[in-house]
Prior knowledge:
The chain is α+β, with helices and mostly antiparallel strands.
Amino acid sequence: MSTFARIGTGLGCSLVALTLLSAVLATGLPPDLTSTAGGTEAPSRHARKDIPGPYLALYRRAEPECPGLSWTVLAAIGKVETDHGRHPTMRSPAGALGPMQFLPSTFREYAHPVPPGGKKPATPWDPVDAVFAAARLLCANGAKHGKNLERAIWHYNHADWYVRKVLRIADSYTTTQPASGAAETALAFARSQLGTRYVWGGNGAKDGGFDCSGLTKAAYQAAGINLPRTAEAQYDATVEVPRGQPLKPGDLLFYGRPGNLHHVGLYAGKGRMIHAPRPGTRIRYEAHRYRGHDFYAATRPTARSHR
């Protein structure tokens, strides 16, 4: 199964789509779906400005349909596909329809049970039906409990650029949780090292720079937390953040796979990390889901994170 959720340019007008969109934005979604309750992550100021109120409420209501899936991912897909139902036709050349751009055959796989406030019979043109169906599609393809969110998004639209774009927008739709005291101290240290050379095996000034795990160890050492030296050992010594849960500034981000975790960075909020990338580079900010990444897991150091 694949869903080609793409919006073309220069599409013809669809009276059905325009009529539906006008009705949604003019009268809102059914009363039981317009509450802002639901959703574990508070919307950022940008999200509240960019997403129409009824759609914002709907994305947040649909979040529990897939345990571990953030409403921000549903919202990001809605943004990429039709700008939250504001695309003039909501019909693609490939035959995808409605605000979440479902092929009719794919929609039928995920349309039931019809959610509260949905149309009967269910239709991909209805925002409630479409958003809940999108949550179910993602859940069936890896998003449940955050098992493999990138794979789930790729199943929505088979393109790596699409996965990166959705994740970037999702990060922009949530507020950054404040760092704890120790995490903020570690981040302050990492920020003070921006521009420092990458040196393999480096532990700081005496070595002329840091490598990735040397930086994270030194950052938390400044906060009074003694981490092991290597990325693998740091992962083993810290508490994993449940997959699908929001990251906090100061979390450690690990890349690779168990037994071969080859890189670690320090989450700085808003989808960015501070890290020492590789030989020939300097410590810098970078999107934590960079091109070609193999992100594995995040952990949260505590006072007990030592060996």
